[in-house]
Specification:
8% of the residues lie in helices and 40% in strands. The chain is mainly β. It folds into two domains: 84 residues, Chitinase A, domain 3 (Roll), CATH 3.10.50; 46 residues, Thrombin, subunit H (Beta Barrel), CATH 2.40.10.
Length: 162
């Protein structure tokens, strides 16, 4: 099956900038998303269109097709209790996840106080030209449940209450 709207796509990727590896999914689970539901970077989704399980390819994305350009002085003070990550002690340079009305955002800690942290709201990869080496693992039709929820369900359902 080829990747098209409403297909569930599982893929591994290695991400690099200027030939230097930044991130890879190879040591863990493949990434999965529903094609055509804006759950994936626009440029990467465009490159995945029409591919099938077993396909390997590389695509280089300008900032406009991935995480956007960097915006200077995009700093916001956020209460520490709203920062999510693998730590109890936040330090400048660390990244955290913040949930807002606009969804989930990755932020970079600039300065930490007793109750708040000043965070750079730019995505850590904003302003970078990124190369994705992609291996398509599996392609299947999304279920009606997945389409109504807007995300892929793992084995045994999606694990959240309705």
């Amino acid at each position: 099956m080829q990747i098209s709207k409403d297909a569930v796509v599982e893929f591994h990727y290695t991400l690099s900038e200027a030939g230097e590896q930044i991130e890879s999914s190879k040591d863990g689970e493949p990434l999965s998303y529903i094609h055509g539901t804006e759950g994936m970077l626009p440029g990467l989704e465009k490159a995945l269109e029409g591919k099938a399980a077993g396909d390997n390819f590389s695509v280089t994305l300008e900032p406009s097709e991935s995480y956007g350009e960097r915006v200077d002085n995009l700093i916001q003070r956020i209460p520490l209790k709203h920062l999510q990550g693998n730590t109890k002690v936040w330090k400048p340079g660390m990244t955290a996840i913040v949930h807002s009305n606009q969804g989930r955002h990755q932020v970079t800690i600039v300065k930490v106080g007793r109750f708040n942290a000043d965070c750079d709201l730019n995505h850590p990869f904003a302003g970078k030209t990124l190369t994705f080496d992609v291996e398509v693992i599996n392609v299947r039709q999304a279920t009606a449940d997945e389409l109504s929820h807007g995300h892929v369900h793992g084995e045994g359902g999606c694990g959240h209450s309705h």
